[in-house]
Amino acid sequence: MNKEEAFKEIKLLTVKIETEYEKGTGVLIFKNNRAYVLTVHHCIYGKKEPYHNLVENSIKITLDSKISKILINPIECTVYKNDIVCLELDTKIINNIKIELNIQDKMFHDEEYFLRGYPKAFSDAHRFNATYNDEIDKNKFRITVDYLTNDTSGDDAVDYIKGLSGSGVFSYKENKLYLTGLVNNLANKAGTFNAIDCVKLLLFNNEVIKEEETVFVNSKSNSYSFYIFRRLVTFEEFDEFCNQCNREKPENHSYKSERGKYPVVNINLNDANKYCEWLSDNNKTYRLPTSSEWDYIAKKNKISKKNLDDYIWHKGNTKKRKAVATTKKVGKLGIYDLHGNVDEWCSDLVIKESSMNRSVESIIKTKNMKPPHANIKNNLLGFRVIFESI
């Protein structure tokens, strides 16, 4: 790949994003045979409006390589702690575009970087050259962009960055194209007009952010507005809670080696609620889903009935009692193990019977079990967590 070919790929991977609150740019990404658009939080939700005010099919994605727009349901958004938003697309609408990007975390002062986006100052997509300025913290870095100088007026600088937010920060070296981060905002609108702050893409290079993956669930008809973690709570996570709170760790009986990334079990309802209290802070309230919320999520997290073994652990395809979280394919919402693996507590004293020791037919139906009290615990009973912003 030469530099001109790299620029063509950057053009193919650049998309315009429009919502009722904001306009911006995003980057088309392919990972594990799935297609995504990466952008930053305010390109989707705006800077003032609360995120839960988005309505269904209100996100418009325009591929740089064609005019037609794609409507995205915000329920398919995933928001990460470092302001990155991930939108999943139907691969059928990408016109067979499939470019495998190399992701890098490190920036270098002697490298040349490239952006492509839809800034207000230009009538169409525009490519900028940039140089690395400095690292802000482990999640952010700063770049200097051509056309922006210390002499650029505040209004002009805002015009250049307005719409450029969410643009990919690319580099080209050794005949390969790399994506390092996403444009976020001007470093300082009041005085530093030649520098732009960007967020790193740690998401693709370590498991820390991936483990914090959530899906936004929004239903006006049911008055639902919350984030749900894509996977079950694991022993690793619950053991850390026990260590910090001086609590006895749950037993795993004859499966003592199955801790770590395995879903935590032998948890009663009070244990699960205490874990949620420990996670909660002034900005977020963590809790278990209600049984009706769980049903709504399961309905939206559709899976292919033609290939159930790809999505569900059940007694017909394993002799295990539980499996490492995230080892099967995700459903339409990107959530793991809603069907199969372990039974799950709900906050209204209901247990969802979906553990992998059942038949696939039984797991698909997922019956409610109303236990006689909240102290029930066993080697097949775990839980998952949702949270709401305060």
Give the CA-based shape. Answer: elongated
Query: What is the CA-based Rg, rounded?
Result: 23 Å
- Beta-strand segment tally: 22
Average per-residue pLDDT, rounded, comes to 79
Strand content: 25-35%
- The CATH C-level class name of the largest domain: Alpha Beta
**What portion of residues is helical?**
10-25%
Numbering strands along the chain, what is their spatial order in the largest sheet?
Answer: 5-4-1-2-3-7-6
CATH architecture of the largest domain: Alpha-Beta Complex
Largest sheet: 7 strands, antiparallel
Domains counted in the coordinates: how many? 3
Number of separate helices: 8
CATH superfamily of the largest domain: paralog of FGE (formylglycine-generating enzyme)
Gap between N and C termini: 48 Å
Question: What do we call the CATH topology of the largest domain?
Answer: paralog of FGE (formylglycine-generating enzyme)
The succession of helices and strands, N to C, reads HEEEHEEEEEEEEHEEEHEEHHEHEEHEEE
Q: What structural category do the secondary elements indicate? A: alpha+beta
Spans of at least 5 consecutive residues whose pLDDT stays below 50 are 205-212
